[in-house]
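Lay summary. Proteins are chains of building blocks that fold into shapes, and those shapes determine what they do. In this project we predict the shape from the chain. Here is one chain we studied, written as its sequence of building blocks.
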Amino acid sequence: MVDDLWMRPLKHGYTNSTLGDGAVVEKTYEGPDADLRLRRERTLLTRLQDELPVPPVHAATTATLTLGFMAGTPGQDLLEAQPAAVLASCGELLRRIHMVAPDVLTAGRHEAGEVLVHGDFGPNNVLLNPDTLEVTAVVDWEFAHLGAPVEDLAWCEWIVRMHHPGCVHALNHFFRAYGGQVPTWADRRAAMLARCEQLRQFCDRWEANGPGMRQWKERTAMTASWSE
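And here is the predicted shape, written in a compact code that computers can read:
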């Protein structure tokens, strides 16, 4: 049993309540489709144990997952100091994610070209060894689904452009480490705008016309104004 007296909020937890004590992490899902997001993340974390560095699932209730604590520093905390190396590590990791067999998520049929999409990929959800910048874990799989690689590629770029504009120049290290042909700017921006709209709708379902919805409306407008 987890002793809640010693649990502390973890940094960078935006959608859910995430507490940790250095040994385990308690993630309580909130908002629309919380039960679906919990089940999806639990399924993936269990199935990905031998393929990717992900937290082990220790216990689950209808609202909370108790996960093993993974050492490392969130990539976004290291990005400003070492943007090229951090983004290269993210690119290498994303390539590994997209190489996972799609049936890890579903045993049903899938469209040609679909991959396992993390759904919220970026340095915010990648833990790194602060000395070597090697990946120690990738977390927060609740929005994972089968889709196009550009979704994750574009969202990582969006995180950098929105929250770390001084690091945009290093995005080429991310794309180079990922490998293959980089989607066009038009396709990447379209994917960014689509995800912004999804999150606006998510927030509007949570609290109609609330501050979250208004924030994503503003972010959508800002994203639309960007040029490569």
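What the prediction tells us: The longest helix spans residues 185-206.
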